């Protein structure tokens, strides 16, 4: 029995097959956004505390190599470490795994939903940046702009109608990589206080 990481295409199919168990991510873009929030967020978390809800698995799955659950855990850990290493050594090279539409446009919504799902794990720790009076609230805007709440309402309220808004929404995802690195830098003194 092997403990090799599950390939991402297989992991996406595996997540889709688990929808009835309510994993926090049902696609690779959602998983990627979730892992990015764990890396860039305000608190360090035990892998069990964030991987279990991400994959909808029990903590015992960490103890049994050679299972599909363990292969999924390994794949998630690899992606988490890849994001962490990229942001630590070459943050300008960080690229979210966004879904592409049939016409080639990028759909950042699943990635942003994954990021927001991870925020929900420790929402009180994220609270300072959710306060619109905080000057640093803007760090979350490229992500929250594409997110939806549990009632499927836009997190920032309904967007204004019009061509200008459509153009802005079409290109706002371009700010996400810089926002993730800025969030990581913002939280670093808190997360790694000496």
Secondary-structure map with pairings?
Blueprint: H1 8-17, H2 28-40, H3 47-55, H4 68-89, E1 99-100, E2 106-107, H5 109-121, H6 123-130, H7 141-144, H8 163-171, H9 176-191
Antiparallel strand pairs: 1-2
General description of the model:
With 194 residues, the protein is mainly alpha-helical. 54% of the residues lie in helices and 2% in strands. The chain has nine helices and two strands, in the order ααααββααααα. A two-stranded antiparallel sheet has the order 1-2. A hairpin with a 5-residue loop joins β1 and β2. α2 packs across α4, α2 packs across α5 and α2 packs parallel to α9. The longest helix is centred in the middle third of the chain and has 22 residues. The mean pLDDT is 91.
């Amino acid at each position: 029995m092997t403990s090799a990481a599950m390939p991402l295409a297989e992991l996406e199919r595996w997540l889709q097959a688990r929808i009835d168990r309510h994993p926090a991510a049902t696609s690779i873009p959602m998983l990627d956004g979730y892992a990015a929030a764990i890396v860039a967020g305000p608190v360090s978390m035990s892998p069990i505390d964030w991987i279990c809800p991400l994959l909808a698995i029990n903590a015992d799955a960490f103890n049994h190599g050679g299972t599909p659950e363990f292969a999924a855990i390994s794949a998630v850990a690899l992606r988490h470490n890849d994001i962490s290493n990229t942001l630590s050594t070459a943050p300008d090279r960080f690229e979210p795994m966004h879904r592409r539409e049939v016409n080639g446009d990028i759909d950042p919504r699943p990635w942003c939903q994954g990021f927001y799902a991870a925020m929900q794990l420790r929402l009180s720790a994220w609270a300072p940046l959710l306060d619109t009076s905080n000057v640093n609230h803007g760090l979350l805007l490229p992500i929250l702009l594409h997110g939806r709440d549990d009632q499927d309402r836009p997190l920032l309220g309904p967007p204004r109608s019009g061509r200008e808004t459509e153009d802005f929404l079409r290109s706002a995802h371009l700010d996400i990589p810089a926002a993730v690195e800025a969030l990581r830098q913002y939280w670093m003194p808190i997360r790694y206080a000496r």
